[in-house]
Design brief:
The complex is a heterodimer of chains A (about 425) and B (about 160). With about 425 residues, chain A is mainly α. Chain A has helices at about 5-10, 70-75, 85-90, 95-110, 115-145, 150-170, 190-215, 215-225, 230-235, 240-245, 255, 275-300, 320-325, 325-335, 380-385, 385-390, 400-405, 410-414, and strands at about 30-35, 45-55, 55-65, 180, 180-185, 345-355, 355-365, 370-375. In chain A, strands 1-2-3 form a 3-stranded antiparallel beta sheet, with no helix packed on it. Chain A has a 3-stranded antiparallel beta sheet with strand order 6-7-8. In chain A, about 50% of the residues are buried. Chain B is an alpha/beta fold and about 160 residues long. Classes of the chains: A mainly alpha (about 425), B alpha/beta (about 160).
């Protein structure tokens, strides 16, 4: 046996995958600490190299890329429809919003207008996903500060939402529910009734979270005036979403460039005061309330009608016709094998995802597969500016600040 | 409002060698690489495009110049986006970096450098970001085979 043992192979010197931005701190007695990429307190595989003066963070260097899986390269090799399961896995806390943003980008290229029911349903599900995403973020960051009860309350509601979405889509997390020109299926019977029940329970439990956390001395001490950023800085560093709004700027694509049915809804854009961790917590909590308010309006507004456009270029024909009619059979075959024929062109479509602006930049040269696929993912851009939130604070503050930024590995590293 | 800004931009921003068009409601301005930094500076100061959204490249292997470098900007004042494009050849894929204007440009330019090998002149930190130190080639270029693997740690056999 000449095969080396596992020990021998681990010992062979490998080049360091990461070259830190600095080898030493500002002072000679600074200590360089490496946190991650696999660390129990950072959610997501990310590495933080910090230069410490005592316990104070002087400088940090954030490295991502440990999950990089070649998403964009892979997308250039599949048909437009086949990409929907992939985009689900970007921000896996709110897969539906990724689906809808991607579908809208392709629909813009194809000049397809979705049906009214689909439009309202997508809006409703986007807001429902936003609640699930914010619940995850708030729950995780509270748990990291030791608030286990709050975590369990929030995750319980999130699990109701996941189970409820599983009734609709067949999956708890990665839904693959969007379709170019529509949705995979219509609502099951009784789905909206259960939605109302979950929203009522949400209000009870989020009320308890407010009671537990809002004026909690420990929580305030750990989050107030920690990770502060100004509006001008936030814009300069590319922050969008709740982080930007926590600085007091009411910048929200749902208001500023209303897509889907947001133009017809009544809602507020909650903003913070000074852009610290507490404000980010509170903005997320208030945004969930606004989402609930929007969902209740949408339940009343939801029209009857088809959910898929009647367009042979993208919508699969009815199964009954596929089995009985040669045109539909060929249509089905071509859509599956070659993909929808998307005219040549380029498009940038963005939705307000729970973490910020999620944009898809697509280039088509005609045909069934994209020529170029690029995602502008909020988490990746946020990691480029997160050192502004960490430097100058305590080492222990890295954890709550990171929690409040809500880095999602799936969309950061793609 | 947005239409007026677009008209003004179309009138003022398009330099002698550039071109502008509307694509799905978004103004697209193509500038030569030498004019890029000046155009972006004007976008930021005169037209209030304060949010740098994105930079990426598109590879057209059969075309000269081979690469499009594509920028997206958003104005939080006028609530519109603009796309800026510049074309660089394969032999000299160099554009000016925007880190002096936007802090967020650093990370995004690093990614574009990783994936396409575009060099951003003036970016102090073009270390690999999604790839590892020592990775050979640029994976999103069309001539990089999809199946090609370069594991940093050898697979266990």
């Amino acid at each position: 046996m000449t095969r080396p043992t596992v020990d021998a192979r681990v010992k062979t010197t490998l080049p360091n995958p990461v070259r830190p931005a600095f080898e030493r701190g500002e002072r000679d007695d600074a200590v360089i600490v490496n946190i991650g990429p696999s660390h129990p307190a950072t959610h997501g595989t990310i590495q933080v190299i910090a230069a410490l003066d005592g316990e104070k963070v002087q400088r940090v260097d954030v490295h991502c890329g440990y999950l990089h899986r070649g998403f964009e390269k892979e997308c250039e090799d599949h048909t437009w429809h086949n990409l929907i399961p992939y985009v689900d896995r970007l921000n896996y806390c709110s897969g539906l919003i990724n689906d809808f943003a991607y579908c809208e980008a392709v629909e813009t290229l194809m000049d397809v207008e979705i049906t009214p029911r689909c439009r309202y349903l997508r809006t409703l599900l986007s807001e429902y996903s936003r609640i699930a995403d914010h619940l995850t973020c708030v729950a995780a960051s509270l748990m990291e500060l030791g608030a286990m009860t709050a975590f369990l309350y929030l995750v319980m509601i999130r699990d109701y939402i996941y189970e409820h979405l599983a009734d609709l889509t067949g999956a708890r997390v990665t839904y693959t529910y969007g379709r170019i020109g529509g949705l995979a299926r219509d609502l099951p019977v009784g789905w909206l009734k259960r939605l109302g029940e979950i929203l009522d329970q949400y209000e009870v439990f989020v009320g308890r979270i407010h009671g537990l956390m809002d004026r909690n001395r420990i929580f305030i001490d750990r989050t107030r005036n920690i990770g502060v950023i100004s509006t001008a800085d936030a814009i300069n560093w590319g922050f969008t979403g709740p982080i930007l709004r926590s600085t007091g700027a009411a910048i929200d694509l749902r208001k500023d460039a209303p897509y889907l049915a947001y133009g017809e809804l009544d809602f507020d854009v909650p903003v913070g005061i000074k852009g610290d961790n507490y404000d980010r917590y509170y903005v997320r909590m208030r945004e969930m309330d606004e989402s609930v308010y929007m969902i209740r309006q949408l339940i009343d507004l939801l029209p009857e009608g088809p959910i898929n456009v009647d367009d042979r270029r993208c919508t699969l024909p009815e199964k009954r016709l596929v089995y009985t009619e040669i045109e539909s059979l060929i249509n089905h075959f071509k859509l599956i094998m070659d993909g929808p024929d998307v005219p040549a062109g380029e498009v940038y479509a963005a939705h307000e995802a729970p973490n910020g602006e999620l944009g898809f930049y697509l280039v088509s040269t005609g045909g069934g597969t994209p020529y170029k696929f690029h995602v502008r993912s909020p988490s990746f851009v946020h990691m480029g500016g997160v050192q502004r939130l960490l430097e100058g604070y305590q080492l222990a503050d890295i954890i709550p600040t990171f929690g409040s930024v809500n880095m999602i590995g799936g969309e950061c590293d793609r | 409002m947005a239409a007026a800004i677009l008209a003004l931009m179309q009138q003022q921003l398009v330099p002698a060698g550039g071109e502008a068009s509307l694509s799905h409601g978004m103004l697209v301005v193509v500038v030569p690489p030498a004019d890029l930094l000046g155009a972006v500076r004007r976008l930021k100061s005169e037209f209030a495009f304060d949010l740098f959204l994105d930079v990426t490249a598109v590879d057209w292997p059969k075309r000269t110049p081979r690469f499009d470098v594509v920028y997206h900007f958003y104005s939080t004042t006028h609530l519109i986006r603009v796309r800026l494009k510049t074309r660089v050849p394969e032999a000299e894929p160099i554009v000016d970096s925007l880190v002096s204007l936007y802090g967020s440009a650093n990370f995004m330019e690093r990614e574009c450098h990783d994936m396409y090998g575009i060099v951003f002149r003036g970016n102090p930190d073009l270390r690999p970001i999604l790839l590892y130190e020592g990775f050979v080639g640029h994976p999103l270029r069309k001539d990089y085979p999809k199946q090609q693997e370069q594991p940093l740690v050898p697979y266990r056999t």
